[in-house]
Design goal:
- By secondary structure, the chain is mostly helical.
- It has helices spanning 10-17, 21-28, 35-64, 76-106, 110-113.
- 55% of the residues lie in helices and 0% in strands.
Length: 147
């Protein structure tokens, strides 16, 4: 599972949300989990999986290009396919890094998150003087007849 694999943005995630990854995943499962934390951990999981794909293709290309390997085993088609695969995986990685970076960039510092939020309602403290204009008639009220 990508939850157990490291990603290149783990340190940033832990810094912004103020805790180690296992605790962040645990709190994301709770009923009071913030949407930002849940989304950040989803992006992080996708990023970890994509980085694993990049590493696999890189390692496969390195193994294919090993100087001790028989040149007869080289395949231009296989290398072209690996290059396309690597290009797609790197594009995905860059996209996940950018999205996660933007999300983390909008988050307040952990010390600001720890403070309880107290919603305040503005209250009117002054009374208004009575209006000089006549009060409007009620809807459906019968008008008085003039003699």
């Amino acid at each position: 599972m990508s939850r157990d694999k490291a990603s290149s943005m783990d340190a940033d995630l832990q810094k912004v949300f103020g805790g180690p990854l296992p605790e962040l995943y645990e709190s994301a499962m709770g009923p009071d989990a913030s949407a930002a934390l849940t989304r950040a951990l989803e992006l992080r999981s996708f990023l970890a999986l994509t980085e694993e794909q990049v590493a696999r293709v890189r390692d496969r290309v390195h193994a294919d290009m090993d100087p001790d390997r028989d040149l007869g085993d080289l395949s231009a088609d296989k290398l072209r396919f690996d290059a396309q695969w690597l290009d797609a995986a790197l594009d995905a990685r860059n996209g996940y890094c950018a999205a996660l970076g933007q999300l983390l960039g909008t988050m307040p510092a952990p010390e600001q998150q720890a403070r309880p939020v107290r919603p305040t309602q503005p209250r009117a403290t002054a009374t208004l003087p009575p209006s000089a204009a006549p009060a409007p008639q009620r809807a459906g009220a019968a008008r008085a007849r003039r003699p």
